[in-house]
Amino acid sequence: MRNSFIDTIIDECSRRDDVFIISGDAGLGVFDQFKVEHPDRFLNLGIAEQNMISHAAGMALAGYKVYVYNIIPFLLYRCYEQVRNDICYQKLPVTLVGIGCGLTYAMQGMTHYSVEDLGLARTLPNLRVFSPMDPVQAKLAAQYSLRSEDPVFVRLAKRGEPNIHAHDAFDVNQPQLVAEGQGVAIVFHGTVVSETLKAREMLQSQGISPRVISLPMVQPLPFHELQAMLDGISQVFVVEEHYVDSGLGASLALEHARANPPWRLHCLGIVPGFVHEIRNQDGMREFYGISATAIARRVAEVM
Fold first, then answer.
1. Which of 15, 155, 181, 235 gives the lowest tally of CB atoms within 10 Å of its CB?
2. 38-65 pLDDT, tens per residue?
3. Top-level CATH class of 176-302?
């Protein structure tokens, strides 16, 4: 997924000369060839994240299309004030490329987790946020960012995620139907797609066939389009590798309260609180109830 996004940006550099990449001492090896071919369009500003964001804003004001690459806590958390004041307030076309969404860095500890980034992003006007589920959505998010005049934040895992989509002829701003179903729907974003699709297989063996919907763009939330896709659904489950009270589920809960649709909302995610558990990513998902088995069990209980 990461390589799909970066390759799309690098490929565009052969057609336009305003694309500039800034790294916060991350992505070592990812940009080796790019630095050889475009040595005047790459900077590693080191472990100085606030300076990195302000520098990106200055370059955007000078006419560059800037991409800032870093692990999410060092891209958004440590320099929140600079993202807020320098980029979002001025509505600059800077794209924040965040690596390690959710519990991708499960064995690295709390400093590297990204389980509250959507909560922070929700407080930033003008910021468009993508959480792709596969390399196809990542590629389309990259293409969107190249055209965007607004700030963009794209949260990615690392690499090796399989393609779920068979083609790329769709609007990445809109909800995507991954699997048809009746009565119950599972809505998700990001790489938890693997657990969601496995859960669907388990539920089908019990006579339950959930409709599965991906939301690659989570901010601004395309609620009306999602609501149309939930026609005939009575129970909606949101699954995300994020704090349950500040991510997609929380955004949907607010819209649900306003619109009062004919479906009940259930949110599955990480219970708020510092993560002290030490397990790999699969173990973490099981612990927090967002593994395939846990999702299937919860849906079956409700249905």
1. 15
2. 999 999 999 999 999 999 999 999 999 9
3. alpha beta
**Residue limits of CATH 3.40.50.970 in the chain:** 2-156
β-bridge partners, 177: 213
Interaxial angle between packed helices 135-147 and 2-12, expressed in degrees from 0 to 180 and rounded to the nearest 10 = 30
Integer Cα distance of 28 and 148 in angstroms:
27
Instruction: Give the span between the Cα atoms of 145 and 127, in whole angstroms.
Output: 11
| Cβ atoms of residues 281 and 192 within 8 Å | no
The number of residues making up the chain comes to 303
Report whether 266 contacts 238 (CB < 8 A).
yes
Question: Where in the chain is CATH 3.40.50.920?
Answer: 176-302
Q: Please, what are the averages of pLDDT over each run of 10 residues along the chain (303 residues)? A: 93 93 90 90 95 98 97 97 98 97 92 96 98 97 98 91 92 97 97 97 97 98 97 98 97 97 98 92 96 98 95
- 10 Å CB burial of residue 297 (0-12, 13-18, 19+) is middle
Fold of 2-156: Rossmann fold (3.40.50)
Locate tokens 């519990």: which residue? 103
- In one-letter notation, the amino acid at residue 119 is G
Q: pTM score, two decimals?
A: 0.96
Q: Tell me whether residue 266 is exposed, middle or buried, using C-beta atoms within 10 angstroms of its C-beta: 0 to 12, 13 to 18, 19 or more.
A: middle
